């Protein structure tokens, strides 16, 4: 489904503050509250607006260690990818997981309270998975940029 400039403005407003009322969204997007409500409903029904959530500050929640982990699987057949992805979905400390091209199969973003918790995650869990051949960790020193907002206000490039 195509979205127009008004939809883009609505999405930008909601990505900044999903708790905004329909009147506030409409005002910032240049439409009435009723129009904003209808458009938001359509964006939800079409799956463009997936859900609205609260963002938690990891450090203030006691999750002080962030790690980027690349994973290489032993084999790519016999359901190994599916098994690994199911395992990942069951671990809340894995915030993101991406399948990759190249010499590594996945990259994970893991957030834990401390290095002891990461050691337990890595050596007590991840490396015990039969499908995992190896994992390489990079500890995050500081966060330079973090956003959950997609650049919806930009028009997509035409091919």
How far is the first residue's CA from the last residue's CA?
17 Å
Radius of gyration: 20 Å
So, CATH architecture of the largest domain?
A: 2-Layer Sandwich
| Structural class assignment | alpha+beta
Helix content: 25-40%
User: In order across it, which strands form the biggest sheet?
Assistant: 2-3-1-4
Stretches with pLDDT under 50, minimum 5 residues = none
* CATH domain fold name of the largest domain: Alpha-Beta Plaits
- What general outline do the C-alpha atoms trace? elongated
Number of strands: 4
Query: What proportion strand?
Result: 15-25%
The total number of structural domains is 2
For this structure, what is the CATH class of the largest domain?
Answer: Alpha Beta
Count of helix runs:
5
- Mean pLDDT across residues: 94
Largest sheet properties? 4 strands, antiparallel
Describe what you observe in this structure.
By secondary structure, the protein is of the alpha+beta class. It folds into 2 domains: 41 residues, Arc Repressor Mutant, subunit A (Orthogonal Bundle); 75 residues, Alpha-Beta Plaits (2-Layer Sandwich), CATH 3.30.70.920. The chain is 33% helix and 19% strand. It contains 5 helices and 4 strands; from the N terminus they run H-H-H-E-H-E-E-H-E. The chain has a 4-stranded antiparallel beta sheet with strand order 2-3-1-4. Strand 2 and strand 3 form a beta hairpin. Helix 1 packs across helix 2 and helix 2 crosses helix 3. The longest helix has 13 residues. It starts with a helix and ends in a 20-residue tail after the last strand. The relative contact order is 0.16. The model has no long low-confidence stretch (mean pLDDT 94).
């Amino acid at each position: 489904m195509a979205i127009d400039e008004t939809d883009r403005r609505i999405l930008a407003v909601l990505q900044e503050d999903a708790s905004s009322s329909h009147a506030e969204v409409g005002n910032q997007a240049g439409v009435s509250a009723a129009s904003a409500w209808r458009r938001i409903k359509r964006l939800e029904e079409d799956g463009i607006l997936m859900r609205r959530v609260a963002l938690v500050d990891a450090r203030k929640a006691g999750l002080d260690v962030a790690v980027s982990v690349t994973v290489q699987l032993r084999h790519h057949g016999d359901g190994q990818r599916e098994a690994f992805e199911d395992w990942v979905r069951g671990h809340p400390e894995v915030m993101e997981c991406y399948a990759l091209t190249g010499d590594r199969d996945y990259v994970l973003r893991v957030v834990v309270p401390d290095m002891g918790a990461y050691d337990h995650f890595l050596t007590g869990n991840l490396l015990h998975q039969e499908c995992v051949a190896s994992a390489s960790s990079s500890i995050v020193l500081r966060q330079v940029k973090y956003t959950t907002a997609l650049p919806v206000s930009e028009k997509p490039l035409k091919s």
